[in-house]
Amino acid sequence: MGLAIFKDYGGCSARRLTMMKNRALWVALLVLGVSTLLMVFFVLPRVSPVKEDASKVATPAVDTAKDAATQAESAVADAAKAAAEKMDRLKAEAVTAVTGMKALFAEGRTPAADAFATAKAVARAAVQALVTLDIPAGIDATLDTAMKTARGGAAKALALIEALPDDPAKAAGLIAAIEGALTGTETPEAAPSAPAPAPDNAADAALPRFDILRVEPDGSTVIAGNAAAGSRLEIMSGDTVIATLDVDPSGDFAAVLDQPLPPGDHSLQLKATGKDGKSVTSEEVATISVPANADGKLLAMVSKPGEASRLITLPESVNSAAKQERVAATDSASAPAAPAAPESGQTATAPTANQPAAGDAAAVMNPEIQVSAVEIEGDRIFIAGKAPVGGTVRGFADDTVIGNAVADASGNFVIEGRITLSVGAHVIHAELLDAAGQVVVRTSVPFNRPEGEQVSVVAQNSQTASGQGGAMVPVDLAAFEKLRGSLGQAFALLQGLYADGKKPVLEELAAARSASEISLKSIADFRPAAAAAKPIVDFVAATAAKAAKAYTALQGLPNDIEAVGAELPKIAALVEAVLSPSAPSSDLALPTAEAPATPGTVPAEPVAPQTTAAAPKTIEQPPLTESRNSVIIRRGDTLWQISRRVYGQGVRYTTIYLANSNLIDNPDLIEPGQVFEVPSEALPDAEEIHRKRLSGEKSN
């Protein structure tokens, strides 16, 4: 029984324990449920707004960054697209303009000067627009390269356009090079163009030559010219090749140097190598001085043995006075003139320095031959003098023939040869020959050869007091008339821009106006030979004064299309006053053998002896005297080169000019056979005078 009670008691305890466990489970479940409800309905609603607010803050920042990046990419893409379209458009316009200019020369035609000038101006404006094309930053590398290439090609093409000569016939063979530079064609094929004027002889025809030399102050250089068709051309600076190109089938070439010439002096020549491997080098030499800084001035010239040097005007701006000025020298001072040998009879003695220059009328009216100076360098001898234009002169040292020479268009000659002359007395003879090789007139002049390897002796200056240097040189009336003809063409182009109510673009106006201004200035600055006949001198002076008046009026107009058009009739009247007067008869400048010679001139042909039985007429000149400051101008000499040799710097050439100003009738030209005095020291302001010349100022 006790056991049964114990069992009953144990069963009750077990049930009670189970119930307690169940109750605890339910309490736990209840607590969990309540907690869940609290979390869902109370805690979470309070936490969610904070997250939402944070999300709201973060989202706009991300969106703004994405929008900015998208907009930047879009802007670059738009800029690139616009730039590419602009490049294509400008390039197409430039190619069209250049092609239009080229079309004027199709089938070997040579266009009228005004049509060519207009096409050239249009091409210049179109190519200039491509040169100034702006390249946006950040564009695709491929597009950036393409745009830089297009702009670089346009810059080369523009330089070639600027260098084109005004004469269409001379420009014909250069157009293909412009098209090639613009389109990136390295060696464009060009149809044969109008042939260039034939050189005087076959030897000259085989040599390359400079037709155009354009140099910018930074050394950028454009060269155009002619060489054997199909040859390989090298532009040489000393022994260094600075450019190489193939000459097109017309024989013309044009090149823009890839690298500007560095500051300093440079001498360039052209070397052409044919397909047979044979090379020839130009006789012409381009002498260039590039300034070291922005304050300096450049000078460029082309010289050729036997010809006067061609100085190149400076490429500064369309209407720059410096571009219109000749740059060889200044307009001031005077100096001893080159003497001329007189004649008073069958055997004559030239006046001494103490005699009046015009003491004998015949001596002034009919000089025939004279030795002006002799230079000796070792065993080389140079005899300079004056003779009738085109006359053949034979020179002797004592009784030894030195050589022959032909008097140039100014009556100058230089005979060059080799002979060893001892120190002491010698005699120079010069004979003027006729067409049959017979002696017409002879001059003899004694001199004492000084000691030294390099010595000079010169004729006594019988005409220093009067300043009548170069009395044997007739005025070059044809040169003055050529200037007037150029003015007529240039001004006709300017008038044509306004014809029939038209209005030119500013670039066309600038080009035509500049051409007219340059022509007027050239006429205004023209100076006839000091010994020219009075009617010629008066005509040139009166016409030059009218040209100066027209030049001042035209240059004073504003750079405005309307203003120039309004004043054009007044300018036309002034230009007409320059062009309308008729020039005096050329007989005044070039007398014939049958007519009395005009003072200051020589017969166009050598004069035959008065009687065949008589011996040739002989002129006895006073002895030549030593001069340590004289120089005979030889083939290829320039003032710049002489100055560089004597004074160390070419820019001091003004010293030489001022000492010989009345020997240099045209400041741009010095001619073989002239004898210049070269001061021992350069003027202290020689470089300042040079700068004034370049800026158009007058020197004192």
Rounded to the nearest angstrom, the radius of gyration is 43 Å
For CATH, the homologous superfamily of one domain is named as: Immunoglobulins
Helix content: 25-40%
Helix/sheet category:
alpha+beta
Taken from the alpha-carbon principal axes, the silhouette is elongated
The CATH topology of one domain turns out to be Immunoglobulin-like
Share in β-strands: 15-25%
Q: What is the name of the CATH class of one domain? A: Mainly Beta
Q: Counting H and I runs of at least 4 residues, what is the number of helices?
A: 15
Average per-residue pLDDT, rounded, comes to: 72
Q: Determine the N-to-C terminus distance.
A: 161 Å
Low-confidence stretches: 187-203, 313-367, 462-476, 586-613
Q: Which second-level CATH architecture of one domain applies?
A: Sandwich
Main beta sheet: strand number and arrangement? 7 strands, antiparallel
Q: What is the count of β-strands?
A: 23
Protein name: LysM domain-containing protein
InterPro entries: Bact_Kbp, LysM, LysM_dom_sf
Keywords: Membrane, Transmembrane, Transmembrane helix
Pfam family, one: LysM
